[in-house]
Amino acid sequence: MWRTLYRPTGPNELALIVDSGMKRFPPRLFWQPIFYPVLNVEYASEIAERWNRGDEDSDDAGFVTAFEIPEDYFRQFQIQTVGLDHHQELWVPDHQLSEFNDQIVNGIRVERSYAGRNFVVPDTLQAILPKIESPR
Fold first, then answer.
1. Residue pLDDT, tens place only, 25-34
2. 120: pLDDT confidence band, cut at 50, 70 and 90?
3. How many domains would you assign to the chain?
4. What is the pTM assigned to this prediction?
5. Residue 10 belongs to a domain with what CATH number?
6. Over the chain, what HEC string results?
7. Cα dihedral sign, 118-120-125-127
8. What pLDDT does 54 receive?
9. Do 105 and 46 contact (CB within 8 A), yes or no?
10. Residue 15 CA to its chain's centroid (Å)
């Protein structure tokens, strides 16, 4: 049995995922001690649309990736609720990310895309992105 998780990303992180063949999340930056996939697409979409799309470092775009891991592996992590009831995520310490990546079943896919008016989709991402949703 598998558990579907979601990860909001910006274009830079998504490009690194593409470089891995859509199989792995990149190592955390030195100031990011935790990798946090989220438990539902609604919360991932909120982050991608409101935070990533509005962030200069994300080039005004946010994406929701989805992937599966085995349920028994999932259970070793405590679910963290970090705001509203649906703001649930796993906290995976950065030193466990490689092992976590090894558990991903059938790769990583992009479920949703959000972009500001000035975002230009890089050639490396065009084939994997669903229709980009315009700002509201």
1. 999 988 889 9
2. confident
3. 1
4. 0.88
5. 3.20.170
6. CEEEEEEEECHHHHHHHHHCCCCCCCCCCCCCCEECCECCHHHHHHHHHHHHCCCHHHCCEEEEEEEEEEHHHHCCCCEEECCCCCCEEECEEHHHHHHHHHCCEEEEEEEEEEECCCCCCCHHHHCCCCCEECCC
7. positive
8. 55
9. no
10. 12
Residue 13 Ramachandran class (φ > 0 left, ψ -120 to 50 alpha, else beta): alpha
Q: Which amino acid is at 123?
A: D
135/114: higher pLDDT:
114
Residue 70: partners with Cβ closer than 8 Å, 6 or more residues away: 1, 2, 3, 103, 105
Domain that holds residue 6: 2-133
